């Protein structure tokens, strides 16, 4: 194998402006807004993407006047199927790993293995690292590190089956498709399999590859595997897509109960022919590269995160089994308590693909008393499966309303809300110094562990968007840049929910009161004490509001700040701002 090295010069990494920069005034028109704040504050990365999409184009997607990327891929698959089916076997079959770094219950990998076994050919696997994709996708350094550690575990697992995993860095993201074709040509592969990703760029890339590979005599096969139920399968009574979770979830449960085979597991790949190791020694010998410089962790962080987040599908499956055996039964009672240990802590593995969503739903269903899927929120198994289903839901939304992948809210008129860009306030939020203990505890947890409890994600997101009225997309970006389970569809969906700009927005009701949330979900204050040592000496409920409940001296002496806003006044301001923005013309 000839080493593949291509370098790009003159590139820079876009950085968020210094948090001490003075606050800027609001734009006076949509044109100024689109060309100024989204770019100035790093919301739109102009190195990779065009300016924010205009509302008219988003509405055209809504009306079906513009072909959705998922439709572009589906058309490419259906129109090339006869030609791809006629391609004869080559010297090997290839599986392209992306967000599916596992051997078990991997549909595309299974199909690749079956094709290889049918024609008595070796199966080769590869993964292409794209530093520019990490940059464009805002991938957190902790997540990059987790991906690379998962690849090492995967390489070891595949080696036991005499299957190589070749990993290579491609500096320029636009050269990924050509490099894929080049590798297949070098190896003599005429059949390639991969699992679909549902973000806009990836759908368009795979649609292009489906067609362009044909010119090289390669059958490129994109397989639906990431979602438990394939996007587009669930429709409303009128035949359209569903944008409200509850009715969507009922249909999702009904569909899987009617088609239980959709949850069947795919076995791991078959062992390669004995001669594979001698035929492809360079592929077996390749090393997992280090993280790109812009995504590297400090040594102290590596030590901490490697202990907190062991990698690999075996760890993922062990966590799943332990959760089902020990905690799922009471999940519906304790899931909202950040100070406990009631959740599965599997989000990082689901995001990395070391565990299939299909696997967790199947095993939770099989452990449930009824052995069926329901929307019963008073039963632990059903409640947890319903939470996993949100992951599917947000991908279904992304496929039908692709402009949410382009810095637009679900309802285009919500882009007319006037946001603030106070970087001093934003910095206090990111650092966990807002003066609201539950908010600060959550943000400090995220900084230290790369993870945040889901209830806390809603609290801190609501606080940023509603109490501070700071552009929710700045918070969405921060989560992606710092969390180990950063996943575009789920992260965007969660921020859309909390900032009331996503599906089922409820802007006039969904304004969380941080104090009430704190008292309800961290009743004894143990979560706050763990992450805010300044308040550890407060032993009663005053910990939720030290300045309002007689503990100002303790807070001041220990350097804990006063609340940066008055929640009641902030709520009134948010209501007025939403009303004014939504009422404006969408054009």
From TrEMBL:
GO cellular component entries? cytoplasm; nucleus
Cofactor detail note: Binds 1 FAD per subunit.
Any one Gene Ontology BP term = response to stress
Q: Which residues form the Photolyase/cryptochrome alpha/beta domain?
A: 91-228
Organism superkingdom: Eukaryota
The record's keywords, sorted A to Z, are: Chromophore, FAD, Flavoprotein, Lyase
Which InterPro entries does the annotation name?
Crypto/Photolyase_FAD-like_sf, Crypto/Photolyase_N_sf, Cryptochr/Photolyase_FAD-bd, Cryptochrome/DNA_photolyase_1, DNA_photolyase_1_CS_C, DNA_photolyase_N, Rossmann-like_a/b/a_fold
Q: Where is this region: Disordered?
A: 1-36
Q: What is this protein called?
A: Deoxyribodipyrimidine photo-lyase
Give the organism, scientific name: Cladophialophora yegresii CBS 114405
